[in-house]
Design goal:
About 75% of the residues lie in helices and about 0% in strands. It is mainly alpha-helical. The chain has a single domain, classed as Orthogonal Bundle (Isoleucyl-tRNA Synthetase, Domain 1). Helix 3 runs antiparallel to helix 5, helix 3 packs parallel to helix 6 and helix 5 packs antiparallel against helix 6. The chain is globular and about 45 Å long. The two termini are about 15 Å apart.
Length: about 120
């Protein structure tokens, strides 16, 4: 459902809010994304499929493709969130990597929801 996808986005933005971390500053640092955990790899692979989901949605005029993609990606993010510590990660490089992955996920959700005409939420 749209609410579940909005919740995934709000959850990501909450990580940045609780950590008092600017997404723009993080992007300026451009930390390397290191995929050591299975959940990190799964999320990165899901995010990598975003352009394909958008292309199919536009070319075939099937918004359900994008909706399905975002729902599956929200599930994948939920697994990542429950498996991989982000703010409490002690290794600074791994912490920055996970924050960068979260930022990418937020951008995918924000863009995908916008394409579907659904507002993203900062908090829920």
């Amino acid at each position: 459902s749209a609410t579940y996808m909005q919740y995934a986005c709000a959850r990501i933005l909450g990580i940045f809010r609780r950590g008092e971390i600017s997404r723009e500053s993080l992007r300026d640092e451009a930390p390397a994304i290191v995929l050591e955990d299975d959940a990190e790899r799964a999320l990165a692979m899901a995010l990598n499929r975003f352009a394909d989901a958008v292309d199919i949605t536009v070319v075939e005029r099937r918004p359900n493709v994008l909706t399905g993609y975002l729902f599956e990606t929200a599930n994948t993010f939920s697994t990542f969130y429950n498996t991989c510590s982000v703010l409490k990660e002690e290794d600074p490089a791994r912490r920055l990597s996970r924050l960068a992955l979260c930022d990418l996920a937020a951008r995918v959700f924000e863009t995908g929801l916008e394409l579907l005409g659904i507002a993203s939420c900062d908090q829920m």
